[in-house]
Amino acid sequence: MFSTAFLDLPPFVAAAGTVRLPGSKSISNRVLLLAALAEGTTTVHDLLDSDDTRVMLDALRALGCGVELTTGSTVRIHGLNGQLHTPQATLFLGNAGTAMRPLTAALSLLGGDFELSGVPRMHERPIGDLVDALTQLGCQIDYLGNPGYPPLRIHPVAPAHLTLDAPIRVRGDVSSQFLTALLLALPLVAVRDITIDVVGELISKPYIEITLNLLARFGIVVQRDGWQRFTIPAGSRYRSPGEIHVEADASSASYFIALGALAASGGALRIEGVGAESIQGDIRFIEAARQMGAHVESGPNWLQVARGAWPLKAIDLDANHIPDAAMTLAVMALHADGPSTLRNIASWRVKETDRIDAMAAELRKLGAMVEDGPDFIRVHPLAAADWRAARIKTYDDHRVAMCFSLAAFNPAGLPVRILDPHCVAKTFPDYFETLFTVIDVPEVPVICIDGPTASGKGTLAVEVAHELGYHYLDSGSLYRVTGLATRRKGLEPEPAYEAEIAALAETLPLQFVKGKVLLDGEDVSDAIRTEAAGMDASRVSALPAVRAALLALQKRFRRLPGLVADGRDMGTVIFPEARLKVFLTASAAQRAERRHKQLISKGISTTLDSLRADLEARDARDSSRSVAPLKPAQDARRLDNSQLSIAQSVEQVLNWWQETQPFKSS
Ligand SMILES: Nc1ncnc2c1ncn2[C@@H]1O[C@H](COP(=O)(O)OP(=O)(O)OP(=O)(O)O)[C@@H](O)[C@H]1O
Ligand SMILES: Nc1ccn([C@@H]2O[C@H](COP(=O)(O)O)[C@@H](O)[C@H]2O)c(=O)n1
């Protein structure tokens, strides 16, 4: 997961391969609540691990429900059998509508004292229609902030005081989650038939189908009369199915379906975990994608997508049945043969953010012409010359972030910057990592930082990599480990043993794990950091065959979203095409002093004079060797950090990097 302030996506040219998607958020949170209310233990497999499921699990624990995390995505829930062990709790539900709405209904009926709150955006998401419906029943709920919105206080009500004989009326035209909440909760008190009447045209019907389907898995068979009336039969009781598997998220599939439809070549994109027989309404995104020209094949548990028509065909769609996935169509529409209109999407305005406003604003940043209204958005195609490199604001909305990652696929070959990429944690924490496994880019960005010993290259490179979310290559550690392996083999780091040492380097059993360097499984991080090890590294690094042996390994570090590499020849030999090369220096006196402090802090005793002599000798050898000598690349930017703090050096390099990017004016 990327927790950086932004993530830059280089332009995509192709996509191919296989992705396995995380579990559906809608199914995960419904299943968790049903399992908690049911009698018996439910083992939930393939549960989504995300912000929204975590708040639901925390809430269930706070309510006294037994939650056992077994393997990574399997959870065992010990059901409460409709009886609360803890009839008092304060629950923080983040921005999870799939937790806030059903828990409000269930806790109002279970009897107890509860306070439910969330992040500020949750307090702007309406819940009044659900509270009104529950109040008709006799539940007692107070608004602790603005009327009609969380936070809420729920007071205990005895079941005998609930009015269950008249139909409960609930609005269906703002959010289908209100009806879902009632359907999930009312079996708790079904001593007689309970009828729910939907007022207004029910939106997002497929989500209600998921609810009914899952209720049936837990023993509750709801009678449905069209989409206006639902009856929970008297005597309904939740019974655990024992084991239940969560399908992969069909809305998340939409980004990869779109990618397959957009990618020019590279073969098909296969999506595993969800298929044509999914119970999720958003699977119907496939129909819309096909309408736009995507070539989609499907099986029970997989999808395979390739580009069909190109440009894509413009679409005019009532997207009420696929509200979440339809956002992806808005980005695909940039590549269509005319304006595309998505209608009947008023619910976008009350989601994680006002999604109509958000999509329109960010599409305009890319250069697109967009029209929008209370319940529609119309997106005009974008010609290659009109695309702009944009910084995409994500509004703490996972779907905005994921949709706009697709803007990195554009005919102008422009990158896209996604601000606050961490918001994908709501439903797909590893979204970007998954994306990077299937896309092809013309150039993975690299920043090279070369310079003499103890100039601060490693410190600077690690910080810059951290800020950008890039990978990091400490190339010196490869020579250091080679030097150590040489000694352990009883060899001298001398030209006489060049072939043997190169053979060692070629097959180093080396791993980098959580900042540690492992040689054949042994943590050698400290052993390679002594000055003697540095000197051995310098000796082996002067051997041409050793340098050649380590070449391919270093190049393999260049992976998306980018790399910061430090060493002596990063800019001159390993990545000569890098857009930013920094040659970092500091006076010998400063460097010796820094290294002295560094070693003393690690409990290694040494003297300033000997250190300075050692580092000067090492620099002299590194600069004078015949292959890949230490020297600035012709196009390197020089940075003398003798008088700079680490933070100032980092800022300078990030500013230089910024200058190489086309985001300035957006
Ligand atoms: N700008 C700076 N100001 C003060 N101290 C710094 C600065 N940059 C780095 N240092 C400190 O100098 C020491 C050496 O830095 P670092 O290990 O990053 O150097 P290096 O160039 O990677 O060394 P080597 O080439 O030997 O691996 C560290 O203790 C680090 O905290
Ligand atoms: N790209 C590189 C990196 C390092 N070396 C040699 O390894 C020695 C140790 O490197 P540190 O950065 O960890 O101090 C260094 O003195 C160089 O001789 C190299 O040749 N090329």
How would you describe what is shown here?
The structure is a single chain. This protein has about 675 residues and is an alpha/beta fold. It has three domains: about 5-20 and about 250-440, UDP-n-acetylglucosamine1-carboxyvinyl-transferase, Chain (Alpha-beta prism); about 25-245, Alpha-beta prism (UDP-n-acetylglucosamine1-carboxyvinyl-transferase, Chain), CATH 3.65.10; about 445-660, Rossmann fold. The protein is about 35% helix and about 20% strand. The protein is built from 21 helices and 33 strands. The strands form nine sheets. It has a five-stranded parallel beta sheet with strand order 27-31-26-32-33. A four-stranded mixed beta sheet has the order 3-16-18-17. Strands 5-6-4-15 form a four-stranded mixed beta sheet, with helices on one face. Helix 1 runs parallel beside helix 2 and helix 3 (about 95-110) packs parallel to helix 5 (about 175-185). The longest helix is centred in the C-terminal third of the chain and has 17 residues, at about 610-625. It is elongated. The mean pLDDT is about 95.
How far do the termini sit from each other?
Answer: 26 Å
Query: What is the spatial order of strands in the main beta sheet?
Result: 27-31-26-32-33
Strand count: 33
Shape: elongated
CATH topology of the largest domain, which one? UDP-n-acetylglucosamine1-carboxyvinyl-transferase, Chain
| Total number of distinct structural domains | 3
Strand content: 15-25%
The computed structural class is alpha/beta
